[in-house]
Amino acid sequence: MFNELYRRLIDPFKRSIRNKLILTMTLVAVLPVIVITAVAAENARSSMEAEVMDTNRVNMNWASVYLAEQFTRMNNIIYSIQISDELHQYLALGQEAPASSRFDEQKAVFNMLNSVYYSAGNYVFGVELYLKEQDTLFTFNSMESRIKTVADIPQGYHKLFTEHKDFTIINDPVDPQKFHMTRSMNRFEDQAQIGAISLEIKWAEFNQTLELLDSRGDYTAYIGDSSGHPVYQPNSSIQPSDEALKQLSETKNNAGFIRTAQEYIFYHDIESTGLRVIKIVPDHVINESALETMKYGLVVGGVATVVSVALAALVAWRTSKPIVRLANSMKGIQLIKDRKVERSGRVDEIGLLEKNLHGMASRIREHIRDNYLMNLEKQTAELKALQSQIHPHFLQNTLQMIGGMVYSQKPADSYKVIRALSEMFRYIVRAPDGLVPLQSELDQLEHYMLIQKQRFATRLEYKLEITGELRACYIPKLSLQPIVENAFLHGLEKKPGEWKLGIEVLCDPQQGRVTIQICDNGMGMEPDRLVEMQSKLERITRYTDRVWNSGTSIGLLNAASRMVMHFGPDYGMRMESKLGQGTKVIVTIPCTTGGEPL
């Protein structure tokens, strides 16, 4: 099926130079447009990619600096609590200090936290101070303000103390829009953790910075941990891929760029926080510029393609028109019959070729006509010469037989022989020299066999069988009599005893041919002689050779040559023979010829 489809697609271009020219010129016109469009799209994409990368590297740098300053400002609030006199005086109290003193110092610490909370800004939701050795937790926010005694480490401080960290940032488990920034308090002498200070902060404090990184809305910027997982992400519609997270967790640099199959990842560490600011630029954003260029390129390319195809078709048509006309002129040239073919009148190479072609065709036609007439005249002369040789041959044999019959047989018998001889010579002299009806040739053979049966009445048995309608069948004149003569001359006359000669005619309209079999029970042929005769008959069929025998009768090979000359190599004669058993000659002619010589 594929081969058939391929053949149907290719055949129009194999058979027509016009189609080849149209296709070639279309490709020449269209391919540059396609290549230029593709190159322009790729250049636009590369330029957009370089611009995005350069811009985002700069933006990520200042964003990380600004975020670090914000975290530093929050750290300063914690440091201001950590170095406050109120806190140091409270920590300096021993266990033996009176309750009134402890109460006064706690109140002073509480007032200090109150002052810090209101001076920090509206992004701080609350302040906590946890003193591990005193088992005390100071809490101050917009909802409550209290001092609480705790036996265990409070929720949110475990990671700081169990992992001995100096600094943690943990999202609020209840409200993801807030986080707790906690810093450890260490004793100066042994750096042991004696407590911690925690600020409850709104993530919205960083929205302005992240929104500047995501100015188009097609990107996403977020604050993540060291492995790249989001800690705070205002726009969560775009998430980092697994491949991006894997590469981010493996990076050792504090700033850089990662390229995956789906996205561009820019990252920068936020100093002294253990966090990173990360920006994701989807791949389609980079390709948008290239797609726009390609879209306009396709529009321009489509218009250029239509114009190119039209121009290519026009140029190819005008270029190939004289060639096609010349090819059609060649189809119109008849080498046998004259046919007027209009000339284009061109004076270029095509016109010169056309002129020479017509001149060559005329010369070939004249040559064929001369050879045909010469061969026809030769064949006619040879046939007439051979026909003239029949007269003394039959005249001598038959007249001798009639002379004997006059004295020995009835007059009616002599009259039959004389009439048969008369009909034979009338057929030879008056019938046309080309094709004759097959029935006429069989009637001529009947007259010949009547004479032969009169000569060999006691020995000869003759039988004729006809199957089918023979009215439309024609055969070259005197084609069958030479075969029967050869049967007598080379087969029967040398054989003692009874002679048998049979002729069977079969007309098959479905196959369009007539088969005539002439069989005798004569001496037959030696194998070498049979091979020689078959070779000559095949040569006549293959090369349409004419082989004229010498002697006083029209030879078998002559009859075969005339059949091939009239009907073509598909028809003719072949032989079968066995030594001592007889010979069969099979003649094949077309069923209908119209009765006109070819």
TrEMBL record:
Its main location: membrane. It is an enzyme of class 2 (transferase). Gene3D superfamilies: 6.10.340.10, Histidine kinase-like ATPase, C-terminal domain. Residues 317-369 form the HAMP domain. PROSITE patterns: HAMP. InterPro entries: Bact_2-comp_sensor_kinase (IPR050640), HAMP_dom (IPR003660), HATPase_C_sf (IPR036890), HATPase_dom (IPR003594), Sig_transdc_His_kin-like_C (IPR004358), Sig_transdc_His_kin_internal (IPR010559). Keywords: Cell membrane, Kinase, Membrane, Phosphoprotein, Transferase, Transmembrane, Transmembrane helix, Two-component regulatory system. Signal peptide: none annotated. Pfam families: HATPase_c (PF02518), His_kinase (PF06580). It is found in: Cell membrane. The chain crosses the membrane at residues 21-41. Its EC number is 2.7.13.3. One of its GO terms (molecular function) is kinase activity. It is a multi-pass membrane protein. It catalyses: ATP + protein L-histidine = ADP + protein N-phospho-L-histidine. This is histidine kinase. It comes from Paenibacillus cucumis (ex Kampfer et al. 2016).
